[in-house]
Every structure is written in structure tokens, then in C-alpha cells.
Amino acid sequence: MSAYxxxxxxxxxxxxFVPLVDYMGHRGxxxxxxxxxxxxxxxxxxxxxxxxxxPLIEVHSRWESxxxxxxxxxxxxxxxxxxxGDGEKSRVVLAQCSDxxxxxxxxxxxxxxxxxxxxxxxxxQVTCNQFWSCCPGxxxxxxLCGGDNVAGGIFGLDVPAEVQGPPTxxxxxxxxxxxxxxxxxGNTVSWMHRKAPEVNxxxxxxxxxxxxxxxxxxxVLLSNDxxxxxxxxxxxxxxxxxxxxxxxxxxxRVHRYKNLGRRGIFAAAxxxxxxxxxxxxxxxxxxxxxxxxxxxxxxxxxxxPSTGVVVKRLDRDEMPDDLIGGLxxxxxxxxxxxxxxxxxxxxxxxxxxxxDRKDGPGExxxxxxxxxxxxxxxxxxxxxxxxxxxxxxxDRTHSIVSTGAWNHVDAWSFTIDDTxxxxxxISNPVGGEFAIVDFxxxxxxxxxxxxxxxxxxxxxxxxxxPSTRVAQPLGIxxxxxxxxxxxxIPSDGLDYSIGTRxxxxxxxxxxxxxxxxLTLRSGINNGSILIESIADGNTWYAGQIEDLRxxxxxxxxxxxSRRGGVMSISVVAAGSLGETPATVTLPIIHETxxxxxxxGDENHELVSSLILRRVTVDTPRSALPGRxxxxxxxxxxxxxxxxxxxxxxxxxxxxxxxxxxxMRGLGRGADGRxxxxxxxxxxxxxxxxxxxxxxxxxxxxxxxxxxx
Length: 708
Fold this sequence. Notes:
By secondary structure, the protein is mostly beta strands. It has four helices and 47 strands. The C terminus is likely disordered.
């Protein structure tokens, strides 16, 4: 029991229902043997009156069923939804009441014991979303549900008044780590709480990247609107992964119940804004073996379905309109449907490396197969992607419980000195009997040594897709200044689980004039941020920040400042949750202030997709981020006062430069396009794209992107 469910919305509500279950844990070989769900009502005559508690009743129960336990329940006027686990015992129950005024009369109840999770004849496996947490959504008939070791973290569920089929879950938040050594990974959101649901208050949740086994990979999620969620904090080093976060008196409180340093309540301020605003997505330069010389998407060399499975290549007019928007105009999409026979394999595909290797294998690299998958059925679609490269086999499991939404699936090979040719086998590993599948599949990319590249709209000689070049001019004058940047790792970016498959990941670079740079790169596997200075082609170590392992969805806040004779840089990953940001004091490596911020390294090169959400500049009299104000007494003939004065004019604005404060203000206006920021469809993002995004719709249509 972690929430009450108001019957009507508004601060003056007078009635709510409270569902609860007796969650029984499994301990080793000793399994739970059932459970029960209860419900009671609270009501008052008017605001300010004492609440009256009505009888607690049993809504549904089941006993003497080994391996079964009740996870959570949520109330709507159309019924109580109960999530039950585990394995073949998994099911979603819908218990409906015909008269809520008389909810304590058993005659008013009808129970659908398997609203989702039906067991057809001859099947012993269940494809079911056995969610683990629940709270009210933005309407009385909508629930927010937390995933249980699946690809998504938080889902929306609308409960209809008239049930005509199984439920469908809408994915709202959650990204899956790139890979783990045990081959299994997913999101577990076993705690979610909504403050003041009667007025659609904020939602806080705890996300555990199960089963990573690392406490510090737990994240605190926050939503101010009940639909858009974002990572706002990582749990500190000495907080166990199942610590409970909640909102109280304008702050985040985390309950510590293990003696891992300090017991009791840990407090931190709520971030000033929900970190879900639109950002600018940049992708790395990479070889893509699923890209033809003219830049168009190509199919694998062959795709062979297994017995009982049909694989059909679809034309665009055969796809639902709401799903076409998630694909590029030339994307090759397959529909995979049927019931696998035997080992559960659905299909096998082969991608052959077309490059000439007469001189022998090249440098040892890893590869990554990137798939787009959309489940068309209600239930859990569990896919095992097995990639064979050379003599090595790599497995990747992905469990999708949302319906009608695109999911990113990647499978990484080890770093080996061999051709990038890959055999891709996709299976449905659910046991001795297999359930029916129906999903859309796109073999999106097969990249080498880097993350998922862009989708090019022009020729790519050698299959090498160029990177997105992103920079921001700063125009700082004076000896005191601060530059801040907020980055984020998207759902297909590199994270801690990549390990040694990629040595390091460039994050961002500050340019101090021609040939002079300060760069930051993530060590990925060891969690370090390496700071290096570059001048005239020479590179030397400037500092290092430890214990910042990054996960997909994490924000990365970088702050570079100079005060007097001291320059310092701080980095916060996924929010500090009250901790002091990791800061390194730097020598005055470059006397002039930075003139430009760049995403990636000094050559704009990336190895992972990154989102840039903002770049801000503060000077002593600057109250607003990004607004540069020079005091009257600091200006003299020949330039700005101070040892770091720049006598030349402001830096020239180059085509790859962007005004990110403008981009940030666009919000969701750019959603729905294949490449939301590349408005003119030329494959690069420039000021022309910004101008067209800001233009009236009619003008934008005359010079906008290619129509799909």
C-alpha cells in the first residue's frame, strides 16, 4: 500500500479508495504460496472534516499455489487492477464492482482472474506484465505502473469501462542497460508514489537496474506532470538499492534501512525543474554495415524464419500510421508472427561485411547490432538476440511489455580481430512451450566500435556515416566567468555495462582559441572522467574525477569556471542528491576564456549518441543563463579589462553552431519527425534548421523536411 486513489479530482475531494496486497517474498528455495488483495474506502463530508474509514474487504485471493505472490494493486472506477507473479503464475487481475457505494457487498463484484496472462491449451508459459508498483494516473481511470525487470520502467494503463480484450500498457519511461555479463538486464520500479494525486501532484519512483548487483546504479525518477519522467538523482554510495524515496516539504527524502554508513532519513532538494525538456540529439561517426553506398537502408544478406513463424517485409502502407512516424522514410521493416516450434528460434539473419580485407583483419573492434522492435500484442515479448561473430557468441535478452511502441534493442560483440560479419539469431526463450508472437522488426544498424550512427540522407562512401557536429559559441569577455552544460545519455547511448568493448567516450570540449582545447571523456567501465588539455597538437593530463559510472538516461552536468587565478571544473552524473559535486581545480592552462563549447572531442567526434540540453554562460552581472553582461567599468580601449582580455571580435558563428536556449524553448514542438532537428533533411543541423523550426507552419512546410 503506497497510494490512495481519489474518486474525483480536485483539492476538495471527499472520497478515495485504498487497495493493498500482502506481498510475500521468495527466499531461496522457499517460495510464496499465494496472496490476497484488500480494499477499503475513506470519506469525509467536507474539506476539513475528519476522515471516516469504511470496512476492509477482500477483493481477490489465491492460496496453495507455490511460486505465486501478489505484487501490487491499483483502483479505478472501472475496477481494481492486481498484478500477480511470478513465471507461469503471472497474471493481471481485473476485479470490477457494479456499485461502489456498496463495495463491501460480495454480490457486487465480478473478477477476471486473467485479464492478461491467459494460458492457452498446451502452453505452460505466460506472457504477462507482472508490474511491481502502482499509483494514480492523471485521470481516475488511468494507472501508472512500475515494471518488474523488463525493458521499460514506468507504464501507463487506461482501464476501460467495457472490457473487450486484454490490457495494453503504454511505455512512459525506462531504458535498458547496453549489456551485462549475465546476459539479463532490465528495469525494476518496485516503488512509486504520487504526492497529492487528487490534484495530479508530482510522482517519485525508485528505479533499480536489475539484476546489475550494484547499489549505486539505482536511480530516483521524478515526474511533475504524471506522464514525462526523468532521472533526477542517483542513490549515494552508502545507500542500498532498495532505499525508499518520497517527497516531503518540497524536498526528496530517502529512507535508509540498512547500516551502510548512516541509517535514518537522507534529504535533498527537489531539482528546480523536471529534466524532460527537449534536447539536441547527436550521433557518432561509424561504419554501418546495413547502409548501402548511396546511403539507403539495406536488408541483411538473408533473413530466414523458423518453423511456425512468418517473416514478411512490409510496405509503408501496410503499417499503422502511428508507427510509421518512428521510422525513417527508407527503413526496411518486417512483421514477425506465429508460434515457434522446437528451440523457440524465430528467425536467423546474416549480415556480411562487404569491405575488402586482402591485407588481413584490421584493428580489433567490437560491433553492435541495433534493432527496432514494436510489440503488437498485449503481453510480454521476450526476445533473446544471439550474435555470432567469428568464433564468439554474445547473447542479449530484452523483455518488452508495452504495446504499439518502438523499442531499441542492441547486442554487442566482444572486441576481437576479425571481420564484422555477424549471424543474428532471434529467439523467444520462454521455456518448453512457446507463446504466439507478433511484432515489427527493423534491422536498424550494425556499427563497428561505436554506438548507433545517424540515419544518413545522402551517399556514405565505405558505409561510413558521419557524426553530428554540434557546437555553441560563448563570446565571453573578462577574467571571471562560468560555463555550464547539461548532457544526457539517450536510450541507445553507451553506459557502464559496455565494459571494455569501447575504451572511452568523449563527452564535451571547451575551445579556447585555434588549436587550444580542454576535453572531458568518460572511462565508461571504470567510472572515471578524464580531463585533458590540448595545445598545438600536444595533449597532457589535467585532472580526473572518479566514481561517476553512467547509465542510459543519466544527465551529466559540467561546470567550468574561473575566479581570479583559479580555474575549476565539476561534473555531476544523474543528479547529486545532496552530495557535493566532484570538483577538480585546474591550473590556468589557457589565459583566454573559452570561445566555444563542442559536443564530443576537439574534432567533434563521438563514440556514443549524446543529447545536449543546454549551454549556459554566467558572468559577474549575469542573472540569466546564456545572457552576457559586461560591467561599465570593465571596458577600456583595446578590449575588456583583465589578464584574459580578448582584443579580437567575437568568434565567427559556424554552420554547426546552435543557439541552445532557443532549441530548449521549442519543447515538444519538434516531436514526430524522423530527425526532429534536421528540418531541411540535409543530414546536418544548422542555424537554418533553427530558423525553420521557429517559422510559422505554412512557411516551414515550403522548405521543411522530406515528406515520409
